[in-house]
From TrEMBL, chain A:
Assembly and oligomerization: Immunoglobulins are composed of two identical heavy chains and two identical light chains; disulfide-linked.
Keyword RNA-binding: no
Record keyword Nucleotide-binding present: no
One CC-aspect GO term: plasma membrane
UniProt-recorded name of the protein: IG c1294_light_IGKV3-20_IGKJ3
Length: 110, 120
């Protein structure tokens, strides 16, 4: 089973700053199968990025994803007040079929 | 657009079976090539994929839960369901249903989630 590690655990930034979130896999992950989600308190997760770098429908272009192999990054170019939330990466492995999530990175207001 | 809504008891006794239903609105559960998943999140913790069912009825389960999980679909009601047997306090969580078009596209949309507490 592939284990995802996210860093940092908490990122304290101010609105307007750039956020860089890391997701590292215990073994190589197909870029096609790497996604990122945003979750606010009391809400379901929201898909931001799929296929490592494709923005989901309606997601602002300040969100971008990159990476390959075992290292993936979610970048928020300029934090807006509504972006303070927890972010999860997720991967899919096919043998056996299994989706796993990282432990999350909390982006909070400095 | 497609919306998902979970329903079911909020309290289940230890050793009993947790049963939840996800109702799909705004589209047919059997149209297109979609997988329908259950995902859970204990309070203050991360997300755990439980399993999924394809529109054909084929299923995949998380190996860590496979012995206790059954996911089924009722196309006539536009619903799919989760049964988790022999529950313990460790199964207390918010349970979400979600759709994925393929593993390449991520889970979207999600239901709002329903809290299930396992307690006597």
């Amino acid at each position: 089973e592939i284990v995802l590690t996210q860093s940092p655990g908490t990122l304290s930034l101010s609105p307007g700053e750039r956020a860089t979130l890391s997701c590292r896999a215990s073994q190589s992950v197909s870029s096609s199968y790497l996604a990122w989600y945003q979750q606010k308190p009391g809400q379901a997760p929201r898909l931001l990025i799929y296929g490592a770098s494709s923005r989901a429908t309606g997601i602002p272009d300040r969100f971008s994803g990159s990476g390959s192999g075992t290292d993936f990054t979610l970048t928020i170019s300029r934090l807006e007040p509504e972006d303070f939330a927890v972010y999860y990466c997720q991967q899919y492995g096919s043998s056996p079929p299994l989706f796993t999530f990282g432990p999350g990175t909390k982006v909070d207001i400095k | 657009q497609v919306q998902l809504q979970e329903s079911g008891p909020g309290l289940v006794k230890p050793s009993q079976t947790l049963s939840l239903t996800c109702t799909v609105s705004g589209g047919s559960i059997s149209s297109g090539s979609y997988y329908w998943s259950w995902i859970r999140q204990p309070a203050g913790k991360g997300l755990e994929w439980i399993g999924r069912i394809y529109t054909s009825g084929s299923t995949n389960y998380n190996p860590s839960l496979k012995s206790r999980v059954t996911i089924s679909v009722d196309t006539s009601k536009n619903q799919f369901s989760l049964k988790l047997s022999s529950v313990t306090a460790a199964d207390t969580a918010v349970y979400y249903c979600a759709r994925d078009e393929s593993p390449r596209r991520g889970f979207d949309p999600w239901g709002q989630g329903t809290l299930v507490t396992v307690s006597s």
